[in-house]
Amino acid sequence: LGFASRNFVKDEDDDSGENPSNAIYRQISGSWPAIVSRMESLSREFSGSQKSKSLSLHISSALPAPDNSLNVSFLLRLFDLVGAMSAASGSFMWGRLREDVWPVCARLLETFLNQRSEKEETALNSDTSLAERD
To answer: At what angle do helices 102-133 and 20-52 cross, to 10 degrees?
Structure first.
């Protein structure tokens, strides 16, 4: 993670006397709108695909199908970045997590659970119709 590594390497020529936490807070504040925007757009893509064409989760492994792998990979990297930011800044991220990240997580979880429920219901209906034929 570039974020974590860049912030913990102190430049030997930096004599500004600035508290390292302030630099981390400024970097988080500056990059946060873009991070949240991308998380929300990916979340909407997943939610939209669930309504229209199905997200294609493999229920047994809970991993997305290859057609969504790039978006899932990017979303996972965003969550890793948010984790690194949280570790580096402590309570500074609390409000951002509650107001920006949690709704995205809740939306994604709802999408995945709804899809799984639909697949299980389809499988149950298929099993029932096969049993009725016998």
So the answer is: 30
pLDDT tens digits for range 19-28: 778 888 999 9
DSSP state letters, 70-103: HHHHHHHHHHHHHHHHHHHHGGGGHHHIIIIIHH
Is the model more confident about 2 or about 102?
102
Is-contact 104 43, C-beta < 8 A?
yes
65-99 residue pLDDT tens: 445 678 888 888 999 999 999 998 888 999 999 99
Exposure on the CB side of residue 110, measured as CA atoms within 13 A: 11
Q: Which residues contact 119 (CB under 8 A, 6 or more apart)?
A: 57, 59
107: closest CA among 36, 56, 31, 42? Answer: 42
